[in-house]
Design brief:
By secondary structure, this protein is of the alpha+beta class. The protein contains 2 helices and 14 strands. Strands 1-4-6-8-9-10-11-14 form an 8-stranded antiparallel β-barrel. The relative contact order is 0.19. It has 2 domains: 30 residues; 217 residues, Lipocalin (Beta Barrel).
């Protein structure tokens, strides 16, 4: 009997250790999305000299359509050096639920680029406002995951960018106090891997001087764009994806 109790005690101890090991792996392996919760702050001197912002010459050049804008239209060009994009996907990795988190990194080409054409009352709809993300720059804490996603899931060799074309903005304030944060909704068309679908971003934005900042969040499914969620023998991703894009843009003259 004593021997049986010793064996049972040993098995129980192993079971407890196994549970603790799983919990420890879960805590160590779970990636904190660390998502932004507000629009990037704008220094109070943003409209004046001496601010650590990219000079106009360092920003993308104007498109032909935006070379001459109607009176009252403000053109904001996204600064890639201060802008970024991040995805969060739940995945099962070796039987453990965790977050797969990847974000853009600066590279030879801008990781986030585009321009926004606005008026004092909202979106300037006569010309295109959009931003695009260079999917080739996406990086997570797993290089094997990154390679698989770029090669097999997103096929970045053929479709290097995801692009969002804004069709409407709701929640634009009738009056605005400079550098205060407002909540907006951006509706538009997202193109990923050659497939275009409507997507809506919830946005926190602020503007001061010639600087506009925003944090935009959207949720959608990979399958909406004809993409099969990544799956390998030891890991499987869910279909749902959360995308956050942080934008810093500077007003440019027409």
């Amino acid at each position: 009997m004593k021997r049986i109790l010793i064996i049972l005690g040993g098995l129980l101890g192993l079971g407890v250790l196994a549970v603790l090991a799983v919990v420890a792996i879960q805590l160590l392996r779970s990636d904190d999305p660390n998502l932004a919760t507000e629009a990037p702050l704008i220094p109070t001197a943003a409209a004046g000299p001496g601010v650590d912002q990219a000079p106009a010459s360092a920003l993308p050049t104007a498109t032909a359509a935006a070379a001459s804008l109607p009176a009252g239209v403000l053109r904001f060009v996204i600064d890639p050096a201060q802008s970024s994009a991040k995805y969060v996907v739940r995945e099962t990795l070796r039987g453990i639920e965790t977050n797969a988190v990847g974000e853009t990194k600066d590279g030879p080409s801008p990781d986030v680029a585009g321009e926004l054409l606005l008026t004092r009352t909202g979106l300037h709809t006569a010309q295109r406002s959009s931003f695009k993300v260079d999917l080739r720059t996406l990086t997570s804490d797993e290089s094997l995951r990154d390679s698989f996603i770029k090669r097999d899931t997103l096929r970045t060799g053929q479709f290097p960018h995801a692009e969002f074309v804004i069709t409407s903005v709701s929640g634009f304030p009738a009056s605005y106090v400079e550098n205060s944060q407002v909540e907006l909704s951006l509706s538009g068309d997202m193109t990923i891997r050659g497939s275009t679908k409507p997507v809506m971003f919830k946005v926190l934005a602020r503007q001061a001087g010639d600087t506009l900042t925003a944090t935009a969040d959207a949720d959608f499914k990979m399958s909406d764009f004809g993409i099969t969620p990544p799956e390998v023998p030891f890991a499987k991703a869910r279909d749902e994806i959360h995308l956050q894009v942080v934008l810093v843009a500077k007003q440019q003259s027409s």
